[in-house]
Amino acid sequence: MTAEPYTRRGARSRVAAVSLKSPSDRRGPPHACACASGHAGALRRPAASHVRRDALRLQDPDGWKPQAGTTEYTGSQHVGEYVDGRMEGEAEYILPTKTKYVGEMKDGMFHGQGTLYFPSGSRYDAIWEKGLVVKGTYTFSDGLQYDAEHWHYCDSYDRRFYTEICYGLKPAGISQLTNMDPPRKIPQGCYDCGDGFYNPTTRVVKDYRNRFLRNTDDDEHEWIIRTCRKGWDEIVGHRPKL
User: Most buried by CB count within 10 Å: which residue of 136, 195, 225, 238?
Assistant: First the structure.
């Protein structure tokens, strides 16, 4: 999963890479698939050649032995059990983005009950089958749960942010621009896409600590340009001809 683009405003489902976002502006969670390489798609089964040799020593096939290993090419970490060199049983699987999966694995894939914990504090609780989600629930870091069927966050039905729902609206004349108040200061030329700042020139999203998160595809690029808050003022509405 990517990262989630999981932004609340203008929610929509989307397969994301496991840096899985958990933004303040939110769309909605993914068809939750996790990808060890950080690209969209189902969790890839690590090839034996990708796993540290000391984690693949032959073991008693009738006994599961807890071990820890690091994949050489993806930088992911696994703490758990192996059967015939494959990740199996209860485990922790930590991606380079610091997104962490805690739950059941089978034959090197997420399988059974498991939860993805994202660096932003959000989580995705799901039932998995061979690396793909059967069903799950995405919860933002502030406790708001995404509802795929009845999602009315910041739309014409109810334009309030979650903090306004919890703590009430500000007095007339005082605007709240984002769920976080006061809002983050956006670097010039960039957009706040919820889990970090997006530079449309390089098409790179970096988190709020300036660490690389992901490259955007055309779909996410267009969504950010169209809907996310930008780091500069722009005249909107009618412009008189001078």
Answer: 195
Q: Is position 47 within any domain?
A: yes
For residue 200, being part of any structural domain is answered with no
Omega cis (within 30) before 182: yes
Q: How much is the pLDDT for 6?
A: 45
Are 138 and 145 a contacting pair, CB within 8 Å? yes
Domain residues for 91?
1-148
Residue 50 has pLDDT above 80, yes or no: no
Residue 129 pLDDT greater than 90, yes or no: yes
Domain tally, the chain: 1
Question: 55 lies in a domain?
Answer: yes
Region 51-78: mean pLDDT is 51
Per the model's pLDDT, the better-predicted residue between 33 and 140 turns out to be 140
pLDDT higher at 57 or 67: 67
